[in-house]
Amino acid sequence: EDKVVQSPLSLVVHEGDTVTLNCSYEVTNFRSLLWYKQEKKAPTFLFMLTSSGIEKKSGRLSSILDKKELSSILNITATQTGDSAIYLCAVEGTSGTYKYIFGTGTRLKVLA
Amino acid sequence: KAGVTQTPRYLIKTRGQQVTLSCSPISGHRSVSWYQQTPGQGLQFLFEYFSETQRNKGNFPGRFSGRQFSNSRSEMNVSTLELGDSALYLCASSQEVGNYGYTFGSGTRLTVV
Questions:
Q1: B99 pLDDT band (50/70/90 cuts)?
Q2: In the list A88, A96, B73, B97, which could disulfide-bond A36, CB 3.0-4.6 Å?
């Protein structure tokens, strides 16, 4: 059965810390992996990764995909309270019964 | 440009009733997908529509149905509501079926009492 597992489930850090969130997957015919940030309701798009080893970067956030290890990491440096959110990982495969399969997310809380 | 619009924002229904949720995608986006989000299960895929056709369907009972209109707007219907249907229902649109990622709406919070 296809699945996406994120770790840790939750994380509490202090402002200025660096965090690494993990996403591992088992999907049929991997196509892409996406990261989203969900603060209240609508998840907002962060990154889409399709090629292994190529880092995507946006400000203090960066992500990289490792197709050999079937995983991705999302790094956030110099965390701020505004980074507090649920970070969702989603993977697109071709099993035919879903568009993207999501992990349950990592809840990050950044303390001032 | 306007984002994905979902209506209503909040809804309270009683068991046994039926409900219809609406989603208007970003202009030009022809693919609309629906997800159910609950604290324990995360985002669970319901179905995806493209050009008025259901392209993919998740593992939900037949009480959950949807459709898409010629203007790409989509509706989701849940009949014979159960307490366990209480959730945030998210709609997401993308430019076409394929590798372009989603833009999500703010969701409809459904509470079944």
A1: low
A2: A88
